Amino acid sequence: MKKLISVSIVIVLLLGVSFTCNKCTPIPLTIKKEIVYQENIGDAEKYYGNYCSSCHGKQVKEFVNREKWVYGSTRNEMFDVVRNGAEENGMPAYGEVLSDKQVYELIDYILAAIEDKKSEEFNAGNNDDVVFVSEGMRLKLELVAENADFPWAITQSNDGRLFYTDKSGKLFTKKENVIQEITGLPSVIYKGQGGLMDVILHPDFENNQRIYLSYSKPKSDDDGYATTAVFSGILENNAIVNSKDIFVADPYVNTNRHFGCRMIFDNDGFLFVAIGERGRRDDYPQKLDNHLGKIHRLNDDGTVPADNPFYNTPNAKKSIYSIGHRNPQGLCYNPVTNKIYDNEHGPRGGDEVNLVEAGKNYGWPVITYGINYIGTTITDLTHQEGMEQPIRYWVPSIATCGMEFVTSDKYPGWKGNILSGSLKYNYLHRDVFDENDQLIKEEKLFPDIGRMRSIEQCADGYIYFGLEEPGRIYRIVPL
């Protein structure tokens, strides 16, 4: 990274930056040029590492290829949002911990880094021709699709038909190199971390053609309130018909973050849905009278099983399976042991992998290994009686997203391992746990490949993953 030591004039072609949290979706504005007078870089690199990297990437990678803006493209507009924050999108007010001079230094550091890093070799995906070695396996990446800007989830039917969502509200299918768009989708609120997210197929999809989508659902009066919903219907000639929402999280909230949205089926045909706390940590995740900050267990039609842990608890939402979650971004299942795992974003530090069990409380925000983004303390507690410990956590955060439990014979060295993507550090993380879910080994795979959003072991036995901006879907191919 270049450091500007003497007085210089940096002509910056602002190609886009977003000062929102990990999953934000910027709004396009006119590209502008701006002359920045900068005396020195000061401690701006340290400020970026401390306050920005957990959401926007360790090396300013989130900003390099952006062609969109949320809060304005001038230096002063950027100063305003960094200094004063944007609470609805999870952007803290860093004016509480940085002086005005330090905020400007941080902004100039980001702008200079964008200009400095606009090089071909910096873009994601340049190691797709490299052979990687892990556990005695030689692995290569195969590009599968690149028509979605923001591929949030991937799945596949037994006949080899690949399905993948674009966060903007589109669903695509690909078979034998033919890509088609599916119609009949719900209207999503595509803002901040919201949009069209997960896609999964019914366990008996080959017979019933039922498909499930999770998405951020706007309130009917369009007043900025949204919630997480699960939409289901029948796939017929590239359209979803006979569709409806089978689950709508209560309440609607006027923030654009922490929607959660991952879904899985277990061996018994129950549908599990992970819902974030929508940035309202003190209001929802520890209370049973709402759906937020919880993992839910449903029948395949959205009705609630009578043996759910809080089904007979007065005033509790009957669908609740576990509580005390922050923002689950991955959900996976071990079909042999019938165990469910999630990964979820901590704040600044404290990303977690949890063994999810009925009726358990996972502690947020009473206990955590993280702190606020501006560096202040959330709680002094990491343990409390009656609250579960993660089976692993990360400090600093890797901004984990997407998750898969490997069962395929195509990857014998990975069988029984859990894979998680890293949005911050741009790699695939492999965790090895023993039979008691104790972490015994970890590995970082495909370094600097890009912000990894989705991971799926598909019906063909191959592992696929999606990268965002530029959107690409890869398949991991053993050689």
Tell me what the structure shows.
- The chain is mostly beta strands and 479 residues long.
- It has two domains: 8-121, Cytochrome c-like domain (Cytochrome Bc1 Complex, Chain D, domain 2, Orthogonal Bundle); 130-478, TolB, C-terminal domain (Neuraminidase), CATH 2.120.10.30.
- It contains five helices and 27 strands.
- It has helices spanning 44-56, 61-64, 75-84, 100-116, 205-208, and strands at 8-13, 33-38, 131-134, 137-145, 151-156, 162-166, 170-175, 178-182, 196-201, 210-218, 226-236, 239-248, 260-265, 271-275, 294-298, 320-323, 328-334, 339-344, 351-356, 392-394, 400-405, 418-422, 428-433, 439-445, 452-457, 463-467, 472-478.
- Helix 1 packs across helix 4 (100-116) and helix 3 (75-84) crosses helix 4 (100-116).
Total number of beta strands: 27
Strand order of the largest sheet: 3-4-27-26-25
* Helical residues, percent: 10-25%
- Estimated structural class: mainly beta
**Major sheet: size, sense and barrel closure?**
5 strands, antiparallel
Query: What low-confidence regions span 5 or more consecutive residues with pLDDT below 50?
Result: 1-41, 118-125
The CATH class designation of the largest domain is Mainly Beta
Overall radius of gyration? 22 Å
From the N-terminal CA to the C-terminal CA, the straight-line distance is 36 Å
Shape: globular
> What is the H level of CATH, i.e. the homologous superfamily of the largest domain?
TolB, C-terminal domain
Under the CATH scheme, the architecture of the largest domain is 6 Propeller
Task: Please state roughly what percent of the residues sit in beta strands, choosing from under 5%, 5-15%, 15-25%, 25-35%, 35-45% or over 45%.
Answer: 25-35%
With helices defined by DSSP (H or I, 4 residues minimum), what is the helix count? Answer: 5
User: CATH fold name of the largest domain, please?
Assistant: Neuraminidase
Overall tally of structural domains: 2
pLDDT averaged over residues: 85
